[in-house]
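User: DEN5B protein, Crotophaga sulcirostris:
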Amino acid sequence: ITGENFDQSPLRRTFKSKVLAHYPQNIEWNPFDQDAVNMLCMPKGLSFRTQADNRDPQLHSFIITREDGSRTYGFVLTFYEEVTSKQICTAMQTLYQMHNAEQYSSVCASSSCSMDSLASSIDEGDATSLAKLQRYNSYDISRDTLYVSKCICLITPLPFMQACKKFLIQLYKAVTSQQPPPLPLESYIHNILYEVPLPPPGRSLKFYGVYEPIICQRPGPNELPLSDYPLREVFELLGLENLVQVFTCVLLEMQILLYSQ
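Assistant: Predicted structure for DEN5B protein:
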């Protein structure tokens, strides 16, 4: 457990994550920073869900800026897969038993009652809150299916967001599909790592993902730098008034801090 959230129910806690594998193992000009990638891929840590929770895959991106000012871009797809380890499921059940016992004692203490006279001493409001507490975020190993977060990430020298996003979504579909893709998954990963070149400045590149072709375009020397992030999302997230204010601050060379979850 990453700490700080022991008061939360076990399904709302976050746990320590780790990098399971990365390819290629190392590149001289771009060494793999395991700690940074691990933290940026799962900034909140590992999380668990059950079949009752929303488990839609989510995409996000990050930038690693080195001391010399060089940048590496990461694009991450986070999804949930079923926990097959009986040991982990049992541990989650135990965490819930401990958590419920603590909450039970807490409600009892706040009502100034003994364990034996809980039913008669607890008022209706506390009894209702206790019942809700036991139903909300509950986990029963015999009834519920446990899922854990996992992510796949592409790290690139340039921010080809749309191309990376499309490839990760296609790869995820191939992993979760009942029907396997035409070729083994390893061949698609090998292709994008070793056979798809970086497009020359001012040129477009078309390569094949798992199911559909993917196109990426690199600006020429006299064009604006590559900005593959959809501008519409900025308007949706910040709103017109806030965006105008941020743009004004940029023109006035003011310091800007964007804070979010």
